[in-house]
Amino acid sequence: MSAGSGDASPGPPGAASSGPAPRARLIGRRLERHARIGSTNDRARELADTGEEEGTVVLADEQLSGRGRAGRGWHSAPGLGVYLSVVLRPPTEASRAPMLGLLAAVAGACALECRIKWPNDLMLDGLKVGGVLAEARTTAESIRDAVVGIGVNVNHDEGDFPPELRGRATSLRRHRGAPQDRAGVVRALIDSLDDWYAIWRRVGDRPVLERFASLAPDLRGRRVRVQDAGAPWTGVTEGLGPAGELLVRRDGSGRRAAVRFGEIVLVEEV
Ligand code: BTN
To answer: What is the pTM of this model?
Structure first.
């Protein structure tokens, strides 16, 4: 393990500027690197527990027990992907915690020039290139702390994915047709997270939701199967609600449901 500060991203090129003074970076001021770790989210949680400052990033070349959403694992092959987590302490209401996952998806999609599938899958060519695992600890009123983890498939070939992911996952290398610089991907992700977190803190949910909507092509008019707490059901998407929930007009009853947690699968029209 090694720790450093301020080396996650070079400053903007050029020296003096007549524009506004650059904002002090929050995310990535301190970076803890690991060759191998269980899960960067778990390590970031440990750091948060011991009072780590907001913005610290935990980065690993390999995860032995990388975690995904809904209790799934996250395939974290050594040296091929980017696996990073950020400690956050947003001073805001507990009800806004789901925005952290949406915000990270927007940041990831802007950094990687990819699309989003609600709630926070990063997609290229209709396949998953990355994902976000946002875990907040809240009191009744407010967010105490949060860990936002992002995993990106960078230099994977098809054969690097386990059989169950083949045909469902892709990598930046496969999409762009050439090996990619993982350090550059890390810098782009951290810069974008820093930008979007600052926007969210300063302006609120609206710009995040607007950008999310522009990056998620399935949010409106798509027939989907919804897997939430109960049995799967189908309907047609009708956009995002004010807290980032997915609005879906249910088949059968015709009622509009607000999906807060869960997955959607696109249903092919016949
Ligand atoms: C998903 O299921 O799509 C979310 C995947 C999130 C994976 C990342 S990799 C870095 C961080 N550490 C983890 O254990 N998970 C997240």
So the answer is: 0.91
Q: CA–CA separation, 215 vs 207, rounded Å?
A: 12
Question: Is 50 exceeded by the pLDDT of residue 69?
Answer: yes
User: Which two three-digit tokens encode residue 192?
Assistant: 């974008």
Q: What would the pLDDT profile of 184-242 be if each residue is shown by its tens digit? A: 999 999 999 999 999 999 999 999 999 999 999 999 999 999 988 888 999 999 999 99
Ligand 1: list residues with CB < 6 Å: 39-41, 63, 66-69, 72, 74, 83-85, 121, 131-133, 149-151
Cβ proximity of 156 and 173 under 8 Å: yes
**Which of these, 75, 89, 181, 78, lies nearest to 129 by C-alpha position?**
75
Side-chain-side CA neighbours of 225 within 13 Å: the count stands at: 9
Distance CA 177, CA 233 (A): 38
What the block records as the tokens of 3 is: 């720790």
